[in-house]
Structure formats: C-alpha cells, structure tokens
Specification:
single chain, about 230 residues, Rossmann fold, 3 domains, 5-stranded parallel sheet, two-stranded antiparallel ribbon, 7 strands, about 15% strand, binds ligand SHN, binds 1,4-dihydronicotinamide adenine dinucleotide, porphyrin biosynthesis, oxidoreductase, Sirohaem_synthase_N, NAD, precorrin-2 dehydrogenase
Length: about 230
C-alpha cells in the first residue's frame, strides 16, 4: 500500500455496492457502505447473524450462494471479503476487468481503495487511515477521537447549517459573512450544544442578529461620516 492516498468523501446514494463474503469483516464493511448511502448486495453461502438481521430488515440484498462473475455487473464498487484467497483473487480480476473500485480485505496490494476508521457525528466525519500499516492503530485513534468529539458535534453542525443560511440571506458583504461564520466556531457554543441544544439555538440566533445589526450601524455611521 502506497503512502500517498487521496482522501475522498463519496456519496454512494443509488450506487450498487457488492460485498462478497458474509463474515465479520464483511459485516463491518456493509455497515460503513450503508452509512455512506450505498445499495448493498451481499453474496455468500453463509451470513453472520448481524448480516442476517439486516437482510430480514430489508436493508441489504443477499444471494445465499458462492460468488459468480455476473454478481459484479452494474456495481460501482466491489469488496472481496471471503476467507478464500482464490475467490478473493477472482473477484479482484473481475472488478479490474470492469474498471470498478475494488477492495480485497486480505490483500492491500490488490486494493485501489481502502476503508478508513471513522467517527461519524451527523454531518461530521473524521476518517483515520494508516495506509494499511496498522488498522489497529487507526481504530485506537478513532476511539480516542470518539471521546473527544461527542454527539454534541452533530447538534452543533446542524445549528451551523441554519446560522450559515441565516447569515447568507441577511448579509451581502462577503467579509462580514466569513467573519461571522468563523466566529461561530467557538468552544463555548459546543459546550452549550452539549448542555442545552434549544438554548444554544436561541442564543446563536440572537448573537447572529445582534452582530449583523451592530455591523450595519457601524457601516451607516461611517457612510454618514464620509458624506458629512
Ligand atoms: C488495508 C485495509 C483494507 C480494508 O479493509 O479496507 C485493511 C487490511 C487488513 N486488516 C487486517 C486486520 C485488522 N483490521 C482491523 C480493523 C479494521 N480494518 C480496517 C481497514 C483496513 N484493513 C484497511 C487499512 C486501513 C488503514 O488505513 O489503516 C478498518 C479501519 C476499517 C474497516 O474495516 O471498516 C477496521 C477498524 C474499524 C474500527 O473499528 O474503527 C483489525 C482490528 C479489529 O478487527 O479489531 C485487524 C486485526 C489487527 C491488526 O492487524 O491491526 C488485515 C490482516 C490481517 C492478518 O494479519 O491476518 C488486513 C490485510 C493486511 O494488512 O494484509
Ligand atoms: N481488512 C480487514 O479489515 C480485515 C481482514 N481480515 C481478513 O478478511 C478475511 C475474512 O475474514 P472474516 O470475515 O473474519 O472471515 P469469516 O470466516 O468470518 O467469513 C468468511 C466468509 O466468506 C464466505 N465465503 C466463502 N467462500 C465464498 C464464496 N465462494 N463466495 C462468497 N462467499 C464466500 C463465507 O461463507 C463466510 O461468510 C480473512 O481473510 C481475514 O484474514 C481479517 C481482519 C480484518
């Protein structure tokens, strides 16, 4: 695995994603594909109970048999997650021939993408990769980040989206818009989101409106100064 990997955030909505194998590793990959919005198809003669639950709940499509070449047709990406080297190799060859994104879970050298360890808090994703050097370290760092970045970040980001719309609709001046958006990113607000989300929304709205008014007053004063 090379060290110069390019981090991308991909929207898998409406994209067919094939996972070959139904073991614990496949189950983990399925979870992250679903979180990314993918339409997941699993091909495997056996499934973990977690995958079986997802199948019964209609979250994934399953073919309860060994892999066949045609399983990959029309897929955006393919993950080979069986415990059989020859099967994984065949899945790789087929995906390469179709020009698909391919991840072979026991062969980093056969992957054209790898899956990072990720903390997800609503719109916030913090992804960690060691370029395959130590998935255990990636996981360890992910768990440390999870304690530091709690559920309040989802609340905070949702509020920032609202405030950003509010500022964009009320302020024409780009510099003022950038300043307000930047100043909203404060530890104080994040703490308030953790303690009292509704209060955080009210106080943020007040803060934004007050700052816009103050800025307009300053602008009016200086305009009067120039003309007078
Ligand atoms: C290259 C990569 C390809 C890919 O799978 O995309 C890959 C490859 C391999 N992993 C192996 C082993 C383990 N993998 C994990 C866990 C995770 N592995 C994940 C990703 C990746 N694993 C990609 C690189 C990511 C990076 O950039 O670092 C994570 C982050 C994401 C996910 O899987 O969704 C997820 C943590 C999720 C989380 O909890 O946060 C654990 C720990 C555990 O299971 O608890 C172990 C055992 C301990 C150890 O080895 O560290 C072996 C094994 C073989 C062997 O020796 O037999 C190979 C093959 C090889 O290296 O040859
Ligand atoms: N990349 C990663 O994150 C990690 C990779 N690994 C490697 O991943 C591989 C899989 O590990 P586990 O999920 O723990 O194995 P597992 O033994 O739990 O699952 C293997 C699955 O492959 C299926 N399978 C076997 N032949 C098949 C075929 N012809 N077509 C379709 N499915 C078939 C089995 O039915 C089973 O569901 C192992 O080679 C392991 O070394 C292990 C840990 C982490």
């Amino acid at each position: 695995m090379t060290q110069h990997l390019y981090p991308m955030m991909i929207d898998l909505t409406g994209r067919r994603c094939l996972v070959v194998g139904g073991g614990t590793v496949a189950e983990r990959k399925v979870a992250s594909l679903l979180a990314g919005g993918g339409d997941v198809v699993v091909v495997s003669p056996s499934l973990t109970s977690g995958l079986m639950d997802r199948f019964r709940a209609g979250e994934i499509e399953c073919r309860l048999r060994p892999y066949r070449r045609e399983d990959g047709e029309g897929c955006f990406l393919v993950i080979a997650a069986t415990d059989k080297e020859a099967v994984n190799r065949q899945v790789y060859e087929d995906a390469r021939a179709r020009g698909q994104w391919i991840n072979v879970v026991d062969r980093p050298d056969l992957c054209n993408f790898i899956v990072p360890s990720a903390v997800r808090r609503g719109r916030l994703t913090i992804a960690v990769s060691t370029a395959g050097a130590s998935p255990s370290l990636a996981k360890e760092i992910r768990m440390r980040l999870e304690t530091e970045y709690g559920p309040e970040y989802e609340v905070f980001l949702d509020l920032l989206v609202e405030m950003r719309k509010r500022i964009q609709s009320k302020v024409d001046d780009t510099r003022l818009r950038y300043r307000l958006m930047g100043e909203l990113v404060q530890e104080e607000w994040i703490r308030l989101c953790r303690e009292d989300p509704e209060r955080a929304r009210r106080r943020m709205e007040e803060w934004v409106d007050r700052n816009i008014l103050e800025e307009m007053a300053v602008a009016a004063d200086s305009a009067a100064g120039i003309s007078g």
